[in-house]
Specification:
About 15% of the residues lie in helices and about 40% in strands. Strands 1, 3, 5, 8, 10, 11, 12, 13 and 14 form a 9-stranded mixed β-sheet that branches. It has a 3-stranded antiparallel β-sheet with strand order 2-4-9, with no helix packed on it. The radius of gyration is 18 Å and the shape is globular.
Length: about 160
């Protein structure tokens, strides 16, 4: 009987450890915003050749941006403080943008000069690791929602 109890405790402990590993606590990247939940890929995972990033979009978000950075995302208040690390992304208003899902094959290069995405799509690559996040605006152009950031490898 003791062996069974020990095994049950070990299994329960292992399950909790696994759940905690995939359930990364998310602190929104922008201060004072409501969290957008990221679904897939999990933190420090790789994205396959035909993979997509998945996340939830609250109904009150009117305008959404997906960003892929080649370094950890740093912010102050509601401003990205390392915009030179912002390399790929997409947003509402682009014809191939799908809310809640960002296909690897439908990225746009981020243009540092125009502070917007280029029209042409690119297949993103980012190794050994990049960081991704999503943020949303209300109908007045205020950032109201943001996700935490996750590290990802996009070979």
């Amino acid at each position: 009987m003791k062996k069974v109890q020990i095994s049950i405790f070990m299994v329960c402990g292992a399950l909790i450890a696994c759940m905690n590993k995939t359930e990364v606590p998310a602190t929104p990247i922008f201060e004072g915003t409501t969290e957008i939940k990221l679904s897939s890929p999990s933190d420090a995972a790789g994205l396959g050749a035909s993979g997509s990033f998945l996340y939830s979009v609250p109904s009150e978000v009117k305008y959404l941006v997906f960003g892929l950075f080649n370094a950890k995302i740093t912010t102050s208040g509601k401003t990205v403080t390392n915009p030179s690390a912002f390399v790929y992304g997409s947003r509402d208003g682009l014809s191939d943008f799908v809310r809640g899902q960002q296909a690897r094959s439908a990225f746009h290069s981020y243009n540092q000069t125009t502070k917007d995405f280029d029209a042409a799509t690119v297949t993103a690559t980012c190794t050994p690791g990049c960081y991704w996040a999503v943020w949303g605006y209300d109908q007045y152009g205020n950032i109201t929602h943001s996700s935490g950031q996750r590290q990802v490898t996009v070979p």
